[in-house]
């Protein structure tokens, strides 16, 4: 048996985990409360979250609110490939009172190779918002490489939609792989992934949701 263990070690094969191993493992999670927990429970602090929706349904507003909540727990870098730092971004920051989390939130506009260089640095950001997936021009293979290189980071990927699906085959594949899948429609964000709270939905804007019949 000892010889077999040595052979596995030489071959780079890790020990298989037992049910007891997994049940006793401790995970770092976001201790959401209130409507955040009702929608998304307490998700793990690493992995991939995928947010998609059509224009004019509250996707940007939801991302701002989500970032403000996550700033309670860690620093965030928004890779704003699509909008950069245009006036619309400034308006949204003011609208949602983001000045209060300015020390925790930063904006960059970097292609994926440059972003990877940034994330390799000591004490780099642990939460990265990529807006949008289509602007990265990543393939599904590129995405897997990014995710596997930084297993201790949380990537929140924003995507365009075509109908009710992410726009493009690569984006659709990323959506299926993501831990938390969030579909935004009619000013409501719906949890479609592995983490669901008691309601599995987050109302982004009360009046807008009522007008769209989403609430």
Polypeptide structure, described:
The protein is of the alpha/beta class and 215 residues long. The protein has a single domain (46-211), classed as 3-Layer(aba) Sandwich (Rossmann fold), CATH 3.40.50.300. The protein is built from ten helices and ten strands. The protein has helices spanning 2-10, 19-24, 34-40, 59-70, 87-95, 112-119, 133-136, 140-149, 169-177, 206-211, and strands at 47-53, 76-80, 105-108, 127-131, 154-159, 161-162, 165-166, 180-185, 188-191, 201-203. The strands form two sheets. The chain has an eight-stranded mixed sheet with strand order 3-2-4-5-1-8-9-10, with helices on both faces. Strands 6-7 form a two-stranded antiparallel sheet. The longest helix is centred in the first third of the chain and has 12 residues, at 59-70. The termini are far apart. The model has no long low-confidence stretch (mean pLDDT 91).
